[in-house]
Amino acid sequence: MSRIPLIVMIAVAVLSGLGTGRAAAETRVFDAHHQLEVRLPEGATRMRLWFAIPQQVPDQRVEDFSVEAPFEYRIVEDTDGNRFLFGEVDLARFAAAGINGPGPETVRVDERFRLVRSESRHDVDPSKSRPYEPADLIDMGPFLEPDKYVVINDRIRELAQTITGGEPNPLIASRKIYDWVLENVDYWVKQPASMKASKVGSTTYCLDTGTGNCTDFHSLYASLSRAHGIPTRIVYGSLFKPELDGTETDQSYHCWIEFWAPGVEWVPLDVAIADIFAGEFAVDDANRQLVSRTTATGYQGPDPRLVDYYFGNLDARRVTWSVGRDLILDPPAASGPINALPKAYIEIDGKPLAEGEGWTRKFTFRELGTE
Q1: pLDDT by residue (tens digit) across 248-261?
Q2: Which of 26, 146, 212, 318 lies in disulfide reach of 152, CB 3.0 to 4.6 Å?
Q3: pLDDT confidence of 98, banded at 50, 70, 90?
């Protein structure tokens, strides 16, 4: 009997659901472990910690959530409705002996949960929607305004107008923006020697360089979409990458877009992953692993079906950690609004502690099958 590689089988499963009414939405089940380890600077006296937890959102069900932490914590909610694990710790009691790490200078938090995630499927036929009416946009202000790195200026407005031609149907206009980004931006993993991502997820960086990572792609997309008057938000999560199932390799983070259109409500898209499948590029030892791990299914070459799929649909191999940019945490962070929180945010004595310089996060999983 012939053997079909697991990644190919998964890709086929995703593709089998393309098109409205062709197949039921896929649901996958994962056991997940989310770990945060903080190395305490010498002389530190107080730590405040916000750690991402899986959100209870459509297409995602969280079960058996548990936390192990050497301090008292509570679940808090920011002004965007995201929930995080929060702890404020007097570090003096960690000075004598390690409580939850290799020594007294280390604090570790472990979250474990089971995630039931469904494929997100939407009918993006323009006849299902219509132009906005004033009543549609009540309470949509935050999704039409700029963020610190998701800019809306004259350059962006003029470009949005050029791309869309002033198209009033949000589904048609959104697809025009999606196609323009695919045509004009390349994911940095295609040529890692010459292309880089920004450190903050920046509209301007992505537009000026023509490259970036998922947050750069979706910052530019959100700027153009909002400039056209389409309510748009950026969702942060992680992918369950099949080649890393059962390993101790961190899944990193990923982000995608949701835009609101009358008649179809919030519509997802992932133009960053779609870009990997849009057209030919050289795959070699320098980028093969990066390219594969950028996707949710692995990479077997260009695939126009997946380019179409990721406009209006999302695979089931992902978890949502938070929604939005410029987050106002609870309690408020000493540094003000937080650019984004797909992992954690930590303050030591009132100052931010940088990832990699003071803390690390590891997200691992085992896939349990379909539901």
Answers
A1: 999 999 999 999 99
A2: 146
A3: low
